[in-house]
Amino acid sequence: MEYKKELLQSRIAGIKDPIQKRLLQDVLVDVFGELLDYSEQCFLDLEQKIEHEYSDPCSHYFIFTGICKKDGIDNASRSLFEVPLQKERDEADAGYLGTLFLACDFKAVLRCMANVYPVTVLTDKGEYATTAALCYSKRYQDTFRWLYEQFGANKRQWHTINCPYLYKLLDIIDQEAKVPKDAAVQKVSIQLGEFSDFVTDDLVLVWNVSKTICKPKTDIAAAGVSSYYIHQIPIDDPDAGYLAVPEAEELFSVVFSDCERHLLVRTENQAYHELEILKVEPYYPEKDHTQLLYPLQSNQRMMRPTDVQALSQPRLLWTKGEVARMLSAYQVFSEFELVDVRPGTQEDKMEVMDMNPFIRVHTFLKQKQKLVLILHARDPADIFRYEKMFFLLAELQLCTQEYQWTGVLQ
After folding, report:
1. Mean pLDDT score of the chain, rounded to an integer?
2. CB-hemisphere CA count at 13 Å for 3?
3. Element (H, E) at 273
4. Among 36-45, 116-125, 281-290, 354-363, the least confident range
5. How do residues 304-350 score in pLDDT, each as one tens digit?
6. Contact between residue 246 and residue 149 where contact means Cβ atoms under 8 Å apart
7. Percent helix, strand, coil in the chain (nearest 5)?
């Protein structure tokens, strides 16, 4: 605007006759001013069109996770909901007594899981004294595995979920099978020794994924000698991500129509009068009053023009600068400093947490070259620093199959 003002003033200053100056002022301001505004708006529209065409395809599917007490969930929240879990125990849950949250760092959790502890269990059939071991919560792990399967079924790109709290939630498993399988557990008292002060047993995970049942408009379409059903579901929030969950369909397709704001779900087996939809809600912190015990974490990233262009380019060399560029798109990377990236050695024997244990990568390479990511945590007292590092490693691992990524914190 300042440039436009200086340009008009320079033209007007060259005219001496006051009448001609006034006429020229009207012409320049009304005509050329409008032309400049029109040109600027055209350039702005072009920039927005290009940005939309090259936008991150995963921008509507970022998952936010947090942890809070059971009575700290905001029932009116539009964004955060309790992670749903299986209600009844099955054969795979034999010996399950409950779940606790251990507020220790990764190495301390490993030490805790390596031991067994005395436990007293109060049930509807009496009290039992036994020993118990701790392991990562199977029900929460299965929930994230299930979400991964829904991403795959809907042909949406999966990104590792940054959920460090998931690896502090530990299941209590009866090692002596003294508690009857059909007994309802009412209270569990476990003695963890040095870890007792870090235990909380009334916490739940929350995320920005909600379930809803829709009643779609259904049509039948022909495809060669067969037919299929098209379910049209109106989209009420263009900033949210949607995943369809048909019950009896192994193969189906989902099409998101931007212009009509409809979700089209195509199935082969049957037409659904009611269809379950997973909605990845956008997070608005000013509208949410969930009492989180720790800051909310997410796998959100900001794709810059160089990042978008790099997605279509082959990565022949993994340099420190290339790794720094990729990781800097994630907000959590701001909590670290990248020290170096180097080939792995025999001394790198630290146990690595697999943040995507349900992903199976098949490759012809029997032995993968190991690359080590060396990071410095800005807050050495952060009990989640290892899990956050493993999240970044998992994202790097998804980008390549010929290398095995591991990490070191300094």
Report:
1. 83
2. 3
3. none
4. 354-363
5. 777 767 766 666 677 888 889 889 989 999 999 999 988 877 666 66
6. no
7. 30, 30, 40
Q: In which residue are the tokens 């995943």 written? A: 243
Report in angstroms the alpha-carbon separations of 399 from 153, 296, 318.
Answer: 20, 25, 11
Single-letter residue type at 76:
A
Q: Please, are residues 308 and 56 in contact by the beta-carbon 8 Å criterion?
A: yes
- 200 pLDDT band (50/70/90 cuts)? confident
Q: H/E element holding 255?
A: strand 253-257
Residue 393 C-alpha from the chain's centroid? 15
Q: Can you tell me whether residue 169 is helix, strand or coil?
A: strand
pLDDT digits (tens, 9 = 90+) for 3-51: 666 776 776 777 777 777 777 777 767 777 777 788 888 888 777 666 6
Question: 316: which 2 tokens?
Answer: 């022949």
Helical residues (DSSP H) of 272-343, grouped into ranges: 305-310, 320-327
Beta bridge partners of 338: 375
Q: Which amino acid is at 150?
A: Q
Residue type, 259: C
Q: What is the Cα 373 distance to its own chain's centre?
A: 22
CA 68 to mean position of chain CA atoms: 18
Cβ–Cβ < 8 Å for 246, 218? no
How many C-beta neighbours within 10 Å does residue 296 have?
A: 19
Work out the angle between the directed axes of helices 106-113 and 385-398 (0-180°, nearest 10): 100
Q: What is the pTM of this model?
A: 0.80
Hey, which residues does 187 pair with through a beta bridge? 122
For 151, phi and psi rounded to 5 degrees? -60, -45
Query: What radius of gyration, in Å, describes the C-alpha atoms of the chain?
Result: 28
Helix ranges restricted to H, 211-300 = none
Structure tokens at 214: 């829709």
Q: What's phi and psi for 245, nearest 5 deg?
A: -130, 75
**Hey, is 100 helix, strand or coil?**
strand
Q: Please provide residue 277's backbone torsions phi and psi, each rounded to the nearest 5 degrees.
A: -125, 135
Give the rounded distance of the alpha carbon of 323 from its chain centre. 20
